[in-house]
């Protein structure tokens, strides 16, 4: 009788242990890394909320695991080796590699996903084999050549893969041989701006890209850092209405409501004449007649031929009598 009881007791214990292992094995499956090669879509971080949800998940998994072990007692001896082995999370890697974790965290980079998505292998460096290059993640696995074939060596600029947007400025301003010419690297990525500058050579070509976009990649300068405005109160945004920084001598088409005083800052005499010698032309903007810088309108564009055909035939030039559109002689002034 005693013997039978011991046997059935052992069977029950056996079954319980089996159930425990099966449960553990299931859990392990849930977190196992899939070894298949990673596609861009998989590496893409989900919405900001996603990582938080993941840590939640990890937390609950961890707490159920401890609950199970509490009920079943802490494993010891051979049972230690029957526990599921879970892959390290970035936070766990960070226990030893904190500076790297911190770089990623502070970079705000889109590289803030699992370390092992990049480091498919790690802790396999062997100085005798000199295999560092070989084991380190390759950018090409997830990226193409985003800047074209002129720039294949990613780490030259993206020095730190754990903070890929910290790019040293002095590397960017280095020159490269293109054919026989030495070209600043900026120009190879920003062809539109470089072409614009070459097509309309001005004194800004001497200033150079890095003279304006100084110190930090992407810095946008203010015209007023280097120039006085034409008239008081003109802002940086105003400058861009008429000038492009990369072809400043080409004056763009300005709006009709452009303040006459702006034109008057250079064409002082005309401005003064039009203002002080009041006629109906004085109520117009300079830009109403001069729709583009340098454009000279014809009186007929607006007035047609208001006098007798005979008169116009005899005096085709209106200014023979009207003298100056900015200082029209009027009956009252005569
Ligand atoms: C986007 C891919 C990517 C991610 C994500 C990434 N790494 Fe790296 N890591 C690299 C590359 C590439 C190198 C090689 C850099 C070199 O050779 O200069 C590297 C190098 C390293 C090195 C050795 C060089 C050093 O600076 O000490 C360690 C350690 C390392 N990574 C740990 C981590 C850890 C830990 C994480 C996660 C917290 C992580 N990496 C996330 C791409 C990545
Ligand atoms: C218990 C501490 C510890 C943990 C946890 C740890 N590492 Fe390391 N790791 C080291 C040490 C020590 C080295 C060798 C010295 C060094 O390069 O900092 C190393 C080196 C590396 C290297 C460069 C050399 C090589 O052989 O690959 C990479 C990459 C790396 N670890 C990635 C990781 C990743 C990814 C994780 C998490 C999945 C991780 N490590 C977790 C301690 C740890
Ligand atoms: C495991 C895949 C993977 C590897 C390997 C990888 N990247 Fe990325 N990288 C990504 C993903 C995913 C993004 C986000 C792309 C997006 O949103 O369009 C990204 C974004 C970037 C960005 C954009 C800036 C940012 O961080 O938000 C830069 C720069 C970059 N990677 C450079 C590199 C360089 C340089 C390497 C090699 C050292 C590299 N990457 C290796 C997956 C990877
Ligand atoms: C000569 C320097 C240089 C080299 C070499 C270089 N990059 Fe970049 N990369 C940059 C700069 C500068 C940016 C713009 C960063 C910014 O937006 O502030 C950039 C942006 C990126 C971006 C962000 C996406 C975008 O187009 O806005 C990715 C991804 C990227 N680089 C990947 C790579 C990869 C992969 C390589 C190697 C094949 C590489 N880069 C080589 C300088 C470089
Ligand atoms: C390897 C390619 C690369 C090089 C070299 C490079 N850039 Fe860029 N640059 C980029 C990319 C990519 C962007 C982001 C483009 C975008 O957001 O549309 C960018 C953005 C910019 C912007 C716009 C920032 C904004 O707010 O819109 C400026 C200005 C700029 N770069 C100037 C420069 C100058 C000046 C240099 C040389 C010192 C330079 N870049 C070198 C790739 C490069
Ligand atoms: C005289 C100063 C100056 C010089 C020289 C200059 N830039 Fe700019 N650049 C600017 C200003 C100002 C802006 C902002 C214009 C705007 O907002 O419309 C700008 C804008 C840009 C942009 C962003 C364009 C966009 O649409 O977002 C790029 C890229 C750029 N410059 C590249 C270059 C390159 C490359 C060179 C050299 C070949 C260069 N710049 C030379 C002043 C300059
Ligand atoms: C970093 C300083 C700097 C910035 C920023 C700058 N310029 Fe200049 N610019 C110069 C220098 C230097 C010259 C040549 C000397 C001079 O005429 O004052 C010049 C000349 C010019 C010229 C005459 C060009 C010629 O070839 O005759 C115009 C027009 C001009 N700038 C407009 C602008 C406008 C508009 C902006 C803003 C979009 C701007 N500049 C931003 C430095 C700058
Ligand atoms: C309504 C159009 C207009 C606006 C707005 C404008 N400019 Fe001009 N700017 C011109 C014209 C026209 C010239 C003369 C072009 C020529 O010589 O053919 C000029 C010439 C210049 C010159 C060359 C040197 C000189 O004084 O002759 C500089 C520098 C300049 N502008 C800077 C600026 C700055 C800075 C702003 C913004 C505060 C600005 N401009 C706004 C139309 C404008
Ligand atoms: C920074 C000084 C400056 C400003 C501001 C300026 N101009 Fe001029 N303008 C000039 C110069 C210098 C010339 C002669 C060289 C040339 O043709 O570019 C000129 C030429 C002209 C001409 C042609 C003259 C001819 O004999 O063919 C007209 C018309 C003219 N400007 C109208 C305007 C009007 C309208 C404005 C305001 C919207 C204006 N200008 C603003 C400097 C300026
Ligand atoms: C009613 C239309 C009209 C208005 C308003 C006007 N102009 Fe004119 N402007 C003309 C015509 C027409 C000519 C050609 C006169 C000629 O052939 O001698 C001219 C010629 C010019 C010239 C070149 C000839 C010269 O006399 O030097 C300049 C510069 C000029 N205008 C500037 C201005 C400025 C600045 C303003 C505003 C303060 C202005 N104009 C307002 C019609 C106008
Ligand atoms: C862009 C159109 C435009 C152009 C070009 C133009 N004018 Fe006018 N002009 C006007 C307008 C608008 C009036 C006011 C009409 C009204 O109120 O009845 C006017 C009025 C006049 C008057 C009456 C002035 C007064 O105070 O009573 C004379 C004279 C005149 N223009 C002559 C000329 C001559 C000469 C030219 C060529 C040198 C010329 N205009 C070019 C639009 C223009
Ligand atoms: C032989 C001299 C002469 C010629 C040439 C001439 N005008 Fe006049 N114009 C006058 C006189 C005189 C007046 C009336 C005086 C006044 O109103 O100031 C006048 C008046 C005008 C007026 C004002 C009409 C009003 O109702 O107030 C306009 C507009 C005008 N002329 C346009 C022109 C145009 C356009 C031309 C050329 C196609 C032209 N004129 C050629 C002598 C001339």
TrEMBL record:
PROSITE patterns: PROKAR_LIPOPROTEIN (PS51257). The keyword Signal applies. InterPro entries: Multihaem_cyt_sf, Multiheme_Cytochr_ET, Paired_CXXCH_1. Keywords: Signal. The keyword ATP-binding does not apply. Residues 238-269 form the Doubled CXXCH motif domain. PANTHER family: DISSIMILATORY SULFITE REDUCTASE SIRA. This is Cytochrome C. It comes from Thermodesulfatator atlanticus. The lineage of its organism: Bacteria, Pseudomonadati, Thermodesulfobacteriota, Thermodesulfobacteria, Thermodesulfobacteriales.
């Amino acid at each position: 009788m005693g013997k039978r009881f011991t046997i059935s007791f052992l069977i029950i214990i056996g079954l319980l242990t089996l159930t425990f292992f099966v449960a553990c094995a299931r859990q392990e499956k849930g977190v196992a890394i899939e070894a298949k090669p990673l596609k861009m879509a998989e590496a893409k971080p989900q919405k900001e909320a996603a990582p938080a949800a993941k840590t939640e998940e990890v937390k609950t998994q961890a707490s159920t695991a401890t609950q199970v072990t509490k009920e079943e007692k802490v494993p010891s001896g051979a049972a230690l080796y029957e526990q599921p082995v879970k892959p390290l999370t970035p936070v766990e890697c960070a226990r030893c590699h904190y500076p790297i974790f911190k770089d990623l965290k502070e970079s705000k980079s889109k590289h803030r996903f699992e370390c092992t998505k990049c480091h498919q292998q790690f802790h396999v460096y062997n100085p005798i084999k000199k295999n560092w290059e070989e084991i380190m993640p390759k950018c090409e696995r997830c990226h193409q050549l985003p800047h074209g074939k002129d720039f294949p060596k990613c780490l030259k600029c993206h020095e730190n893969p754990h903070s890929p947007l910290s790019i040293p400025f002095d590397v960017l301003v280095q020159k490269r041989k293109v054919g026989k010419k030495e070209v600043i690297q900026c120009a190879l990525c920003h062809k539109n701006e470089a072409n614009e500058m070459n097509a309309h050579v001005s004194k800004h070509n001497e200033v150079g890209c890095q003279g304006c976009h100084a110190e930090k990649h992407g810095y946008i300068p203010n015209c007023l850092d280097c120039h006085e405005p034409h008239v008081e109160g003109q802002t940086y945004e105003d400058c861009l209405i008429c000038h492009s920084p990369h072809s400043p001598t080409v004056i763009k088409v300005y709006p009709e409501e452009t303040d006459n005083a702006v034109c008057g800052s250079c064409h002082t005499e005309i401005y003064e004449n039009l203002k002080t010698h009041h006629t109906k032309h004085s109520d117009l903007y300079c830009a109403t007649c001069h729709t583009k810088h340098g454009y000279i309108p014809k009186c007929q564009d607006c007035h047609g031929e208001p006098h007798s055909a005979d008169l116009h035939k005899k005096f085709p030039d209106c200014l023979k009598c009207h003298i100056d559109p900015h200082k029209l002689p009027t009956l009252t002034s005569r």
